[in-house]
Amino acid sequence: MKFELVDRQGYIPDLNYGDAGQELASFIPSDYSFKQVSYHNGEGEALIDGHTWHFFFTQEGIGIKLKDGIVTLKEAEKLLLSIKSHIWGDNHQQVQIFMAGVTPK
To answer: Is residue 37 one of the residues assigned to a domain?
Structure first.
């Protein structure tokens, strides 16, 4: 399952990457404990609540992909809304959340 957080104006705030081994703290809210699995060039994977999530940049915003595990849509929405608030702040209303996939040929 892949999601995208997209600001309608194309705005992504400057991210403050965490210390070595915790760089993905720039994506993950502080109320979620995580173990960073990989990191390279501003993107990587983290283990959150027993599930592996991949964080990356897209042409229009930030991508978040569930790589391993099963979550309910409600659990995913809670995480995505927390990430949105963590990156853009609580008062920023221009960010939309999309479920993304590959268009069949």
So the answer is: yes
Within a domain: 17: yes
Overall pTM surpassing 0.85 (yes/no): yes
pLDDT per residue as tens digits for the range 15-43 = 888 889 999 999 999 999 999 999 999 89
Q: How many domains does the chain have?
A: 1
Q: Which two tokens stand for residue 86?
A: 């963590």
In a domain, 105, yes or no: no
Domain span including residue 43: 2-100
HSE-up (13 A, CA, CB side) for residue 80: 23
CB burial of 76-99 (b: ≥16 within 10 Å; e: otherwise) equals beebbeebbebbbeeeeeebebee
Tokens of 63: 């991508």
Phi, psi dihedrals of residue 17, rounded to the nearest 5°:
-70, 145
CA distance 11 to 30: 22
